[in-house]
Amino acid sequence: MEIRDFEIKEITELTKGNSDSHPIYSFKLTPISGPNYKFKPGQFITIFSEDGKLFRSYSIASAPEWDFIELFIEMIKGKMTSYLSNKRVGDVLRIGEPRGNFLLEEKTKSVYLAAGVGIAPFFSILRHSIINNVSIDSYLFYSVKHMDDIILLNELESFERIGLRILINITRDQNIPEHFFQGRINTEKIKRHVPDYMERKYYICGGLTFAKDLKTSLMNEGITEDKILSDIWGEN
């Protein structure tokens, strides 16, 4: 696997976190030399520590057309996020080449199912689509604990003009806007809001329990396994 040096161009706080949720930061990275890595929406990169002993993979949130890579990183105070919390703009990170088979297709009738920072790869496909002025036929069910945990809501809503239908689910707050939904994502919500749900391909990105439960529920509804693609990480 190719590993190259990238400079941290920008670090931005996306969410502040709550007592039961972690803050999420955007890291924008540019190659020290040569062009940006080529990748497809849905792929991930791996960050390595200087000695190579510490490494962690993150979904790419930027569009392939951009000259930098953007990552949404939940600062969970683990080994890698503690390492990253000490980094500043101008510092260098060792980045492995993009990999992964969670490949998002523009022209597929889709349902995107995202929990928390699992929204990242969907930003990549949506940014790619809007740059190329490609209309999509996709629903996005996005689950967060609190209103304050939503990442880049204004940009997210801008994707509606290319055909995205957004259904945001809040699991902990009681007072939420009328056009948002209370509670977790489940198949009942999907069936209620996606009339042709049996005909669509499902992309799931989130923690192990979230992805496993949704995949099982979808298959129990008759969705075949070949129509379900998951990008899963272990529980923190």
Name the quaternary structure. single chain
Taken as a percent bin, the fraction of beta residues is: 25-35%
Overall shape: it is globular
Order of helices and strands: EEEEEHEEHEHEEHEHE
Radius of gyration: 17 Å
- Secondary structure tally, helices: 5
Main structural class: alpha/beta
Low-pLDDT residue spans: none
**Terminal Cα separation, in Å?**
26 Å
Number of strands: 12
Q: Name the helicity range.
A: 10-25%
| Global mean pLDDT | 96
Strand order of the largest sheet: 4-3-6-1-2-5
Main beta sheet: 6 strands, antiparallel
List keywords for this structure.
single chain; 236 residues; alpha/beta; six-stranded antiparallel beta sheet; six-stranded parallel beta sheet; 5 helices; 19% helix; globular
Account of the protein in words:
With 236 residues, the protein is an alpha/beta fold. The strands form 2 sheets. The chain has a 6-stranded antiparallel sheet with strand order 4-3-6-1-2-5, with no helix packed on it. It contains 5 helices and 12 strands. The mean pLDDT is 96.
